[in-house]
């Protein structure tokens, strides 16, 4: 009696492509190692098309892969037609801060911006290695601007700077990453953890040329003075 396994690989591909739902295709690909290997390209292409047409309240495949840092899935998506400049319309993924959640809903970020806003360092580093543009902005905000907002992420900032992020580039309203960090410090002066994060990020940005000795707003100067950084760093050494 003929078995589906005895059919030619081309027919297996046609069967996979003819299945009506992604769930059916996924189930067939999990039948055994042969089907998993044969249907990989079809599976990921279908995942991309389903994601593009999905209901706004469902999580897209990019968002799922980034939020769980499934680097192998990201690699397969990019290999089978995905794009590093793809914009993710927020559909319920995991963003580990209020700002990340809010920013992703408003701005439909690129893959790198989505990884940065969710504090997913491994995913961000992987995307940069794949060729993601470290200074690509959405509505004026680039990855470095996002990394220093609300809960500054010093490890993420290090990754972005190492990849060539412009530490002096202003956002849409004219705030450079250092200015945004100082503003965050001022807003959260009662939160010790965030203040420590802000100081570490500010020190890193200054070390890479973010402070040029130019005029600053009073609140920025006060924040630098409290941190003993920039023009006030010598005071720390004298003490």
Automatic annotation (TrEMBL):
Keywords: ANK repeat, Signal. SMART domains: ANK. The keyword Membrane does not apply. ANK repeats lie at residues 139-172. SUPFAM superfamilies: Ankyrin repeat. Residues 1-20 form the signal peptide. Coiled coil: none annotated. It comes from the Eukaryota. This is Uncharacterized protein. The lineage of its organism: Eukaryota, Fungi, Dikarya, Ascomycota, Pezizomycotina.
């Amino acid at each position: 009696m003929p078995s589906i396994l005895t059919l030619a690989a081309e027919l297996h591909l046609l069967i996979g492509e003819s299945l009506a739902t992604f769930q059916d295709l996924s189930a067939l690909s999990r039948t055994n190692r042969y089907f998993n290997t044969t249907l990989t390209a079809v599976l990921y292409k279908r995942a991309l098309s389903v994601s593009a047409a999905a209901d706004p309240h469902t999580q897209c495949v990019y968002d799922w892969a980034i939020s769980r840092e499934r680097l192998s899935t990201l690699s397969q998506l990019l290999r089978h037609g995905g794009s590093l400049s793809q914009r993710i319309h927020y559909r319920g993924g995991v963003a580990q801060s209020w700002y990340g959640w809010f920013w992703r809903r408003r701005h439909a970020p690129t893959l790198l911006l989505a990884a940065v806003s969710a504090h997913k360092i491994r995913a961000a580093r992987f995307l940069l290695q794949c060729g993601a543009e470290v200074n690509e902005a959405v509505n004026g905000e680039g990855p470095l601007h996002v990394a220093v907002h609300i809960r500054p992420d010093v490890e993420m900032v290090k990754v972005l700077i190492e990849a060539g992020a412009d530490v002096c580039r202003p956002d849409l309203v004219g705030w450079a990453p250092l200015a945004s960090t100082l503003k965050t410090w001022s807003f959260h002066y009662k939160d010790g953890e965030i203040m420590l994060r802000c100081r570490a990020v500010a020190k890193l940005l200054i070390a890479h040329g973010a402070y040029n000795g130019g005029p600053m707003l009073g609140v920025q100067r006060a924040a630098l003075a409290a941190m003993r950084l920039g023009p006030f760093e010598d005071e720390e050494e004298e003490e």
